[in-house]
Give the backbone structure.
Amino acid sequence: MTSKQPQASDLVAENQALRTRMAYLLEQAERNHNIMMRHQAFDLEIVSASTFPELVGTIFRTLPIISELEAVTLTLIDEGGDIHTVMGKLGVNFAEFPDLLFVEEVDRLGFDLGRRNAYSPIPRPLLGMYDAFKHGHAFPRPPEGLQSVALVPLLRNKRIIGSLNLGSVDPTRFTPSLGTDFIEHMASIIAICLENVISNEMLKYIGLTDSLTGVYNRRYMDRRLLEEIARARRQAYDISLMYIDIDHFKRVNDTVGHQGGDEVLREVAQRIKAELRLSDALARFGGEEFVVLLINADLDSSTFVAERIRAGIAASMIDVSPSVRVSITASIGVACLDRSDAGATPEAAAMELIAQADSALYQAKDSGRNRVLPYRPDA
C-alpha cells in the first residue's frame, strides 16, 4: 500500500497559504513597530513637557491618535482641591480640558483596593465591556458606540495619584484576558510626568505667592504687569493699577500685636479680592501695601472699583481675637496705562504706572486717608 502523493495543486495552495500568512505576520510586525515608534515619540514628548497644560494637552491630543482610541480621559486625586486651585491661579483654563477629571478620594476611581488603603495592595488595571453605570465617572462624555474600556491606575511609589482611562468602539480591544504590561508601562511614565510637573507648578506657585495672605507677591505682579502691558498694546485695551495702603497700620500692630496685625492683613486681602474679577490680579507688595492690576479697565471704571474696595474694607470691624475687634480703613491710588506712549518699553511703562499709582496714593493719604484718588497728569 503506497501513501498518496501530494498533488501539484495542493503544494501550490499550501505555498500560497504560507505566503499569505507570512505577509500577514510581516504586516503585523511592521504595524507593531510603527506603534512602538509612535509611543516612544509620545514618551519623549510628555517627558519634555514643562507645564501642566502642556503635559495634559499632549496626552489628550496625541494618545487617542497613536493608540487608535475613541476616548481618553484622565482622573487625578485632588484632596482638598489644591491642584485645581493652584493650576487655576497659574492660569490653566480647565474649559480647554473637559476630559481632565478630579476626585477627592481614591475610592472614587473604582479600583479594588482590598482594605481600601491607597498604599496597599497595588490595584490592577480594569479591562472589560463598557458599562455606563460602572464607568460613567471615568467617561462623563462617552463617544457614541463606546464598547470596551481600560481603567489604568497611575502609581507613584505604590501610591495611587489617579487613573488613565482608555475607551474603544472595538468590543475586543480591552478584554479581561488581555495582557496589561504595555498600558501599565505607559501609565507609569504618565504618572511620573504628572507628579513632576505638578510638583514644579506647586513650587512655582509658592514662589509667586505671599505666604501670609495667600495672594500673589511682588515677584508675580512684576512679571504679570509686563505681560499685560505688552498684551494691552497689541489688543488695544486699557489696564489700570491700584496701590492700596492700610491706614495707620503701625498703630494696629502696636495695639493688638503682630499676630493681630497678620489677621488684619489676611482679612483685608480677602475683602479686596471679593471685589475683583477672575481676570484681575491682587498682590501684596510688602508690609501693609497691596497692588491690584485690572484688565480691560479705564481710569474711571477702576476708580469706581477702588471705591468699592475702600468701602468694603471700612464697612465692618475685623476680629483679631475672640475678644478684640479693630476698625480698619485704607487709602488707594489709581492709575491707568498711557497707551499714547507706545514707544516706552514694557519695563519702563510698568515702572511709570506703579509710580503714578503710588503718587496718587500719597495724595490720598495727605488728603486725610480713607479715600480713593485717581492719578491725572493734567491735574
